[in-house]
Amino acid sequence: MTTANNDVKVKSDRRRFLQFLWRSWTIQASWNYERQMNMGFLYGIAPTLDEIYHDDSDPVVRKHKQEAYDRHMAFYNCTPQTSAFVLGLAASMEKQYAEDRDSFNPDSINAVKTSLMGPLSGVGDSFFQGTVRVIAFGLGISLAQQGNILGPILAMVLSFIPSYVITYYAGKLGFNMGSKYLHELQKGNLMDKVMYVCGIVGLMVVGAMVASMVTIGTPLQFAGTGMQGVIDNILPRLIPLGVTLFMYYLIKRRVPTGWLLTVCIVGGIILNALGIFA
User: Fold this and answer.
1) Do 87 and 171 meet the contact criterion of CB atoms below 8 Å apart?
2) Residue 77: helix, strand or coil by DSSP?
3) ∠ CA 33-244-44 to the nearest 5 degrees?
4) Which residues have C-beta within 8 Å of that of residue 18, sequence separation ≥ 6?
5) DSSP 123-187
6) What band does 138 get if pLDDT is binned at 50, 70 and 90?
7) Were both Cys, which of 35, 58, 220, 264 would link to 227 (CB 3.0–4.6 Å)?
8) pLDDT mean over 265-270
9) Residue 135 main-chain phi, psi, to 5 deg
C-alpha cells in the first residue's frame, strides 16, 4: 500500500513539474504593459492553487482561493525558462501557507518572487538568448547556407534540448527546495528575516530597472552648460527617477492604466517638442 501511494505521489509530482515547464514557456502569451507576465505566472500556478483550494462549495476556502489568485496578479517579469524555478518555489510556499496559515506570512511569497526576478532574468537571458540561441542558430545557418535541410532542424533541436531540461528541473528544484527548507525557515522567525532581505533585494531590482530601462534626459542649456551634466553630477538618473516616482504616485491614486499611457505618450511628445526632454 505504501508503494502504491508513493507511485501515485511520484506521478502527481511529475505532472506538476511538467505543468511548470509547459506553462512557463507560455508565460509571455498574455504579456501586458501594466504588469507584464503576471497573468502568465498565474496561469502557471493556477493548477496548484486549484489543488490546494479544491472545495469551492466552502465559502472560506473559496475566499482563500480568490486571495491566492489576486496575490499572483502582481507585477512579474522573468526569463520563461527560469520562471519554472519561481513557479515551483511559489507553489511550495502556497502549500505551506495553506497548511500553516497562522505563522506563515503570505506577503513573503511575492517578496521572494520579486527578489528572484532580476538575478534569474540576468542568468536566463544571458544563457538562453545570448549563448544557446546564438550557437544553435549559428550552426543551423551554416548548414542552411550549404542547402542542407538539417540546418533549421538542428537549430531548433539544439535550442529545445537545454531549454527543456533546465526548465523541467528548475521547476522541480524550486518546488522540492521550498518544501524542504520552508519548515526550517519557520523556526526562530527566520522567515521574517528572509522576507526583510527579499524586500531589500526587490527594491534594488526595481531601482536597477528604473536606471536601465527609463531613458529620459534634457537638452536644456544654462549659461552654455548642459543641464543634463549638472543634474548627473547631483544625482545620476535623477530625471528617470522623478518620472518613475510621479507615475507611482498616479498608480497609488488609482489612475486607470489607459490614462497612465496617455500621460506618458502625450506628455512625452509635448515635452520633447518644447525641447525640455529628449
Assistant:
1) yes
2) coil
3) 35
4) 168
5) HHIIIIIIIIHHHHHHHHHHHHTTT-THHHHHHHHHHHHHHHHHHHHHHHHHHHHHHHHHHHHTG
6) confident
7) 220
8) 91
9) -65, -45
Task: Name 36's bridge partners.
Answer: 32, 76
275 dihedral zone (left: phi>0; alpha: psi -120 to 50; beta): left
Output the DSSP codes for 184-236. HHTGGGHHHHHHHHHHHHHHHHHHHHHHHH-------EETTEEHHHHHHHHST
How confident is the model over 31-80, as pLDDT tens digits? 988 889 999 999 999 999 999 998 888 999 999 999 999 999 999 999 99
Cell, residue 139: 550552426
- Long-range CB pairs of 28-31 (<8 Å, 24+ gap) are 28/80
Q: Write out the three cell numbers for 60.
A: 472560506
pLDDT of residue 1: 44
Whole-number Å distance between alpha carbons of 98 and 134: 43
> Most distant CA pair in the chain: distance in Å?
86
